[in-house]
Specification:
Layout: E1 2-7, H1 14-27, E2 32-36, H2 43-47, E3 58-61, E4 64-68, H3 71-92, H4 97-104, H5 109-124, E5 129-133, H6 137-157, H7 162-167, H8 169-176, H9 183-204, E6 208-214, H10 218-233, E7 238-246, H11 254-273, E8 278-283, H12 292-301, H13 308-311, E9 321-325, E10 328-334, E11 343-348, E12 351-356, E13 359-364, H14 367-370, E14 372-380, E15 383-390, H15 392-397
Parallel strand pairs: 1-5, 1-6, 2-4, 2-5, 6-7, 7-8
Antiparallel strand pairs: 3-4, 9-10, 10-15, 11-12, 12-13, 14-15
Helix pairs in contact: 1-12, 3-4, 3-5, 3-9, 5-9, 6-9, 6-10
Length: 398
């Protein structure tokens, strides 16, 4: 099973591209689900299909199903147990009830609902291919970073020694001065951590990749370059670019000639910026592609698009890689289009804090690296490489 995520700056045609890819795959005999994480819910409009049904995936045509996710029905009940406990704690501390309700609401509920639905469909659905129409780039980056970030916060929400809490509950509660979590709350947090961990492994595994959709304009290309870097920071693989709305042929008047010249310059910049990735080009069609037949026509008009069989091939290169080197270890992470001077790196106990272009990631170090010290960092060939050597004092204690 393969997962393809489509994202891009708002208005570049990512929903059309995602829907067209799904239609093309389904008509080639691939059992396909296309779903949307975009709160605008325009996927149904592109497919010309009502996706408001709460029952689950809707069959658009043979082999093609579509899904629209509801945050309230997906995550509300299971989070409420944890929220009720947090409200108790804040009430004990004298926090205003209205403020407490806001503080304990699940962050990014829409995004979490989409992630949970994606994980469930990938795990139990009968699909060969899941195509995801993501929100515009900023929201997508937040969505894809959410499992790791939320799991990190959940781990700190409640103490790690949960069996000890159960045993010493009365004495511990008296000492702490606040109510301690009931077994059901601990169990709920554990389930959330497990689900988020499964989604994180799915998103960064060899079955998942991201496609960037853009138009050949300087502002859009610049944002797409930054998105590629940011996705790499969080361990996601970008394996293709779709350049949309390219004017066909030469201009017949000065206005169209100027646009054609600008777009051709943009295409050259795309191919230089995203060297090593597949680049497909979609012409600006004479009419908006709405409905499966029109979307199939859009997919057929793509130049440089992958054969359907290639869509299902696994990808490589995502996530963290730890490799032994002389005298220690090297931790490598794909980080395209940046120099070492643009990367901020800080060690904090068993974690690394990485920041690139305003995007931050907290990395929990593998156990072997927790007993090492950082010896340096460099960016080589699009990879961030961080050197580690054993801390002899720590290894002896271990």
């Amino acid at each position: 099973m393969r997962v393809l995520l489509f994202t891009g700056k708002g208005g570049v045609g990512k929903t059309t591209t995602a829907a067209a890819t799904a239609v093309r795959a389904a008509r080639a005999g691939v059992k396909t689900l296309v779903m949307s994480t975009d709160a605008a819910h325009s996927l149904g409009d592109a497919l010309d299909t009502d996706l408001a049904s709460p029952r689950g995936p809707v069959e658009v045509e043979p082999g093609l199903f579509a899904l629209q996710v509801s945050a309230t029905s997906s995550v509300g009940p299971s989070w409420r147990l944890v929220q009720d406990y947090l409200l108790q704690v804040l009430d004990t501390l004298g926090v205003d009830p209205v403020v407490a309700e806001e503080l304990t609401s699940l962050p990014g509920a829409e995004e979490v609902a989409a992630l949970v639905a994606l994980g469930e469909q990938a795990e139990s659905g009968p699909w060969d291919l899941v195509v995801v129409d993501c929100a515009p780039t900023a929201e997508t980056l937040r969505l894809l970073a959410l499992p790791e970030a939320l799991a990190w916060h959940l781990e700190r929400l409640l103490p790690g020694q949960r069996s000890l809490i159960r045993t010493l509950r009365p004495a511990a509660a008296a000492a702490a001065g606040v109510p301690l979590p009931a077994p059901a709350v601990l169990s709920a947090v554990s389930r959330w951590q497990q689900r988020l961990g499964e989604v994180q492994r799915l998103l960064t595994g060899p079955q998942t990749s991201v496609r960037l959709v853009l138009t050949p304009e300087r502002v859009v290309i610049a944002e797409s370059r930054r998105t590629w870097t940011s996705l790499g920071l969080h361990g996601f693989v970008v394996d293709g670019v779709v350049v949309n709305r390219v004017f066909p042929g030469a201009g017949a008047d000065p206005w169209r000639t100027a646009w054609n010249d600008a777009q051709q310059a943009g295409l050259r910049e795309v191919r230089e910026s995203f060297a090593g990735l597949s680049v497909a080009v979609a012409p600006y069609l004479p009419a908006e592609p709405v409905g499966p037949d029109a979307l199939a026509g859009f997919a057929a008009a793509l130049e440089g698009g992958q054969p359907v069989d290639d869509l299902l091939a696994p990808v490589a290169g995502g996530g963290l890689r730890v490799e032994p080197v002389d005298g220690g270890f090297a931790l490598r992470l794909s980080l395209p289009l940046v120099t070492a001077g643009e990367v901020s790196l800080q060690r904090r106990g068993e974690e690394l804090l990485l920041e690139v272009g305003g995007h931050r990631r907290v990395l929990a170090l593998p156990s072997a690296l927790q007993r090492c010290r950082v010896t340096g960092a460099a960016v080589r060939g699009g990879d961030l490489e961080i050197g580690f050597e054993p801390d002899e004092a720590v290894w002896r204690r271990g």
